[in-house]
Amino acid sequence: MKAPEFWWQQSGIRAGLLSPLAALYGMVADRPFGRGHVSDIPVLCIGNFVVGGAGKTPLALALADRIMAHGGRPVFLSRGYGGTESGPYRVDIERDSARKVGDEPLLLANQAPTFIAHDRIAALSAISAFGAADVIIMDDGFQSARIKPQHAMLVIDAARGLGNGQVLPAGPLRARLATQILHADSLVVLGYNDSRAPSTDALIGRFHHLGKPVFDAMLAPQGPMMLEERVLAYSGIGDPEKFFRSLREGGMDVIHEVAFPDHHFFSQDDARTLLDLAAGHQAALVTTAKDFARLRGETGALARLAAVSHVFRIEVAFAQPAAVDALLQTMEGSIRLC
Asked: What is residue 7's DSSP assignment?
């Protein structure tokens, strides 16, 4: 489901009408914070303030990369949103499909062992039995508070910010902002070179005031990707417009865009439509790694779509990677960064 446009505009009558419900939702959403099970293995939680895409999964991958580069052994924990498997279950990258485990776990499992579970506490036992984890990187789960993380790192899209600053359903906040800031340990500002939303600047100021670290980072293409032909871009992620914009900023001639809801499982009809559109425009098909993960193991038109689609892969680049490493070193437990 696409987020309402008024969430990302200055508060108006629609947000005002929903404010009583938002107040009630905010009180309920506040209750789990500060509670939760404490794991024997250090837990680094990657979260965001608002619904929709903010870059949690690319950030989780980047942090795992830094930990592994210094000899650490991270394990990912995800709820497996969109998949049928309830877990606890270790993702098998060779055999599993997104329909079983979700799209994001497939991306995570390409880098490090990944477990999915609707019950995250039950997953801790499975990870402990696995026996090769120095740190658990939990992709999302900040607001659920089933597990109390050793460190909660929240990410914000610099350009998008916090929208109208209201709690669901009046705005995009997943819980009251003051509560989320109180229980967050650090902030990653994704897209620090972009034009920042006023709410982003205000949030950075509040973190600085509380003495909590703020890290600047960018989403950058993972290697060069230039196509001489025209491009038809398609995507079903939290913020597909950011993807389309990134292609244009990278010099590609995007002549048509097709946006789907986040985590959308493409149908055979979707695939035939995209293939026909590309043929009609004489354009190359380009999508994201997360979208492409949902095409794995499919048949018919979906298999043909996967075969001809180019994948635009991104990664998080920190402005001050040494500062990120220093933070990881402060986490207690057996993370050893040399």
From this structure: G
Query: What is the C-alpha separation between 294 and 292, in angstroms, rounded?
Result: 5
pLDDT value for 122: 92
Whether the model pTM is above 0.70: yes
Which of 246, 293, 266 lies closest to 111 in space, CA to CA? 293
Whether the upstream peptide bond of residue 113 has omega within 30° of 0, thus cis, is no
Return the closest-CA partner of residue 29 out of 206, 234, 133, 172.
Answer: 172
Looking at the structure of the chain, the number of domains it has is 2
Q: Taking Cα atoms as reference points, which of 138, 117, 112 lies closest to residue 43? A: 138
- Judge if 276 and 208 occupy the same domain: no
Distance in angstroms (rounded) separating the CA atoms of residues 57 and 48: 11
Any domain includes 222? no
| pLDDT at residue 85, as a whole number | 94
Averaged over successive runs of 10 residues, the pLDDT of the chain (338 residues) comes to 78 87 92 85 94 87 93 92 91 94 94 94 92 90 85 93 93 94 96 83 96 94 77 92 88 93 94 97 95 94 97 93 90 48
Q: What is the largest CA-CA distance in the chain?
A: 57
User: In a 10 Å sphere around its CB, with 0-12 CB exposed, 13-18 middle and 19+ buried, how is residue 303 labelled?
Assistant: middle
Is residue 6 classed as helix, strand or coil in its secondary structure?
A: helix
Is 29 in contact with 262 (CB distance < 8 Å)? no
152 lies in which domain range? 5-73+134-216+317-330
Q: Are residues 199 and 242 in the same domain?
A: no
Would you say how long the chain is, in residues? Answer: 338
